[in-house]
Amino acid sequence: MFHSTCLRTRFAEPGIWAHFARTLETTVMRSCYARTVHEALGNLRQWSRADRELIQRALERLYETHGHVRMEELAAHCGLSLRQFERRFKRRMGLAPKVFARLLRFEAARDALLQGQEADAIRFGYQDQAHLIREFSFWSGMTPGAFVERARQRAAQTQRPQRQHTFIALFLV
User: Where is the HTH araC/xylS-type domain (predicted)?
Assistant: First the structure.
């Protein structure tokens, strides 16, 4: 499988190849994400009702707060001890709830930057700007400033509007 960095270095030439590389990179990244979600939720029918309700409650709270919630509070919201909550969440979702929360905080900051807003650390649940930059670099491989610059360059290179993809919301019932 190609890595997105390989795609950029191999195909990122001006013109049609740059557009092709961006499209292929996006497709590969979405495919990897879809496979991960599919694997994590693949055994949904085998989940107990209690596990489905637990994950539903946890995800609702995580999305409401954009990941800015203490794990102790989230465990209490789900009616479990912290250790039991972490263990059950990780068993069903494939990653720890704290990691999931970190990813949601990053996505909120990234979306704000893409909309032209400032990435204020406190607003997104970080202690200070250094923590925001460290987390942003961890998830995206670049600082927020570099990310904004790259987004501007890509927007300038794009000559025609890109097709918007529709995603189906996933609900646990």
Answer: 52-150
Helix (H, G, I), strand (E, B), or coil: what is residue 95? coil
Handedness of CA 120, 114, 36, 74 (dihedral sign): positive
Among all chains, which residue has been given the structure tokens 């996933």?
A: 170
**pLDDT for 62:** 93
Q: Which of 141, 142, 119 is nearest to 132 (CA)?
A: 119
Tell me if 105 sits within 8 A of 66, measured CB to CB: yes
Q: Which residues in the chain land under pLDDT 70?
A: 1-45, 159-173
Read off the pTM.
0.64
Separation of alpha carbons 143 and 120, rounded Å: 14
pLDDT of residue 172: 53
Amino acid at site 156: A
pLDDT tens digits, 74-110: 999 999 999 999 999 998 888 899 999 999 999 989 9
What's residue 93's pLDDT?
Answer: 87
Please report the DSSP string for 26-92 in residue order: HHHHHHHHHHHHHHHHTTGGGS-HHHHHHHHHHHHHHHHTTT-S-HHHHHHHTTS-HHHHHHHHHHH
Domain extent listing, the chain:
1-42, 43-157
